[in-house]
Design brief:
Blueprint lengths: L1 E5 L4 H12 L3 E6 L14 E4 L5 H8 L4 E4 L12 H21 L3 E5 L27 H20 L3 E6 L1 E3 L8 H10 L5 E2 L3 E6 H14 L5 E4 L2 E4 H12 L6 E2 L2 H18 L7 H6 L3 E2 L4 H7 L6 H17 L2
Parallel strand pairs: 1-2, 1-4, 2-3, 4-5, 5-6, 6-10, 7-9, 8-12, 9-13
Antiparallel strand pairs: 9-11
Helix pairs in contact: 1-6, 2-3, 3-4, 5-11, 7-11
Length: about 325
C-alpha cells in the first residue's frame, strides 16, 4: 500500500515514516524545496516536491496513493507574519483534504493536536468531548489547530474517510527543531534550567504517536478524534524524572507566574524590534497557567494505542539528544 506523508521531515512525521516503512508501506513524502531532509536520510522514501499551500503540487504528490497522513503543520508560538500560521495550518489542511476527496483516497489520517481541544476548569484531564470556548483559546498556534480540526470534521461530513488524531506532548528521537518539550530536555541537559513554572503536560513516546497514526488508519472511526497521550506529569515531576535518568540535579525554585508573564511581554517587544525569536512568549507563559492534562482512554480502548511509561519515553529522548548534541 502506498502512503503519502505530509510533514515527513518533522518530529512526528519522521517517526511516522519509519513506522510505515517497518509495516511494509511504500512511502512518498511531500517536501518543500528548502526542507531540512536530515530526518529522512538513508530511508527508502520517494520525495515529492511541493507545499500544502499549492494544490497542483498536492495533486501530483497524492496521485497513486491509497492513504494520506497529513502531519504537516507550522508548530510555533512566534510566527511572522502571523497570517502564515493560518495559511499553512488551516488553508493547507483544507487543500490536502480537498485534494484527497477529489482523488478518492481510501483513508486520510489528519494530525491535529490537543491544542485544538478544550480543558476543564477544574483541572481534570480533558478528553475528546471536552467543550472548547473559542474566546479562551490562547495564541495563533492553538487557534489555527482548532480551526483546522473544524475543517477536517467538515470534510468527514462531506464523505471523506478522515480520522483525526490529537497528539499531546511527544518526546523521543528525531526532534531536530526541537519542539518546546524537547527544548526543555535540551535545556535540562545543558544545565540551562535553574527554575521552573508550575504547569503540567501529557508526556507520550513519539514512537507510540507514530504507531497511533497507523492504528487510526486501520481501526479509527471516520470523523472521530483520538487523543494520543500518555502520562500526565507536572513540569516539576518531569524534571525530577530527568534527574533520575541523568543524575543531574533538578531545579528546586518555582517561578511566580505574573512576573514571568510581564518579562515575556518585554522580551517579545524587544524581539519584534530586533527581528529575533524569543525563547519564551506571552502565549507559552499564559498556557502554562493551566495543567495540560489529557486522557488517552478512547484511543487505548478503540485503537489499542500503546502506553509507554513516561520515564522510558524520556530516557529515549535523553539518549537521542545526547547523541545529537555530541555529534555537532
Amino acid at each position: 500500500m502506498k502512503a503519502l506523508v505530509t510533514g515527513g521531515t518533522g518530529f512526528i512525521g519522521a517517526n511516522l515514516v519509519r513506522a510505515l516503512l517497518k509495516n511494509g508501506f511504500s512511502v512518498r513524502a511531500l517536501v518543500r524545496p528548502n526542507s531540512d531532509l536530515r530526518n529522512l536520510k538513508g530511508l527508502a522514501v520517494e520525495l515529492a516536491l511541493g507545499d500544502v499551500r499549492d494544490r497542483a503540487s498536492l495533486k501530483a504528490a497524492m496521485a497513486g496513493c491509497e492513504v494520506v497522513f497529513h502531519a504537516a503543520a507550522l508548530y510555533s508560538f512566534w510566527v511572522r507574519p502571523r497570517s502564515l500560521i493560518y495559511e499553512v495550518n488551516v488553508d493547507g489542511t483544507r487543500n490536502v483534504l480537498q485534494t484527497a476527496l477529489e482523488l478518492g483516497v481510501e483513508r486520510v489520517v489528519y494530525t491535529s493536536s490537543v491544542a485544538a481541544l478544550g480543558l476543564p476548569e477544574d483541572g481534570r484531564p480533558a478528553d475528546e468531548e471536552t467543550p472548547v470556548d473559542p474566546r479562551k483559546i490562547v495564541g495563533d498556534y492553538k487557534k489555527s489547530k482548532y480551526l483546522a480540526q473544524k475543517v477536517a470534521l467538515a470534510f468527514a461530513k462531506k464523505g471523506l474517510p478522515v480520522v483525526i488524531v490529537n497528539p499531546s506532548f511527544p518526546v523521543g528521537p528525531y526532534d531536530v527543531k526541537p519542539t518546546p518539550t524537547g527544548q526543555v530536555i535540551r535545556d535540562f541537559l545543558a544545565r540551562r534550567m535553574p527554575a521552573y513554572l508550575d504547569t503540567g503536560m501529557s508526556v507520550v513516546a513519539v514512537e507510540d504517536v507514530a504507531l497511533g497514526h497507523l492504528l487510526a488508519m486501520e481501526r479509527g472511526r471516520v470523523g472521530q478524534c483520538y487523543i494520543l497521550g500518555g502520562e500526565n506529569l507536572t513540569l516539576k515531576e518531569l524534571l525530577f524524572t530527568l534527574s533520575e535518568i541523568t543524575g543531574l540535579p533538578a531545579p528546586k525554585m518555582r517561578l511566580p507566574y505574573w512576573p514571568v508573564l510581564a518579562m515575556s511581554y518585554l522580551n517579545a517587544g524587544l524581539c519584534r524590534l530586533t527581528g529575533s525569536t524569543p525563547r519564551m512568549t506571552p502565549e507559552t507563559v499564559r498556557m502554562s497557567r493551566h495543567y495540560m492534562f489529557y486522557s488517552p482512554q478512547k484511543a487505548v480502548e478503540e485503537l489499542g494505542f500503546p502506553q509507554t511509561p513516561a520515564k522510558e519515553a524520556l530516557r529515549r529522548a535523553v539518549d537521542w539528544f545526547k547523541n545529537s548534541m555530541s555529534n555537532r
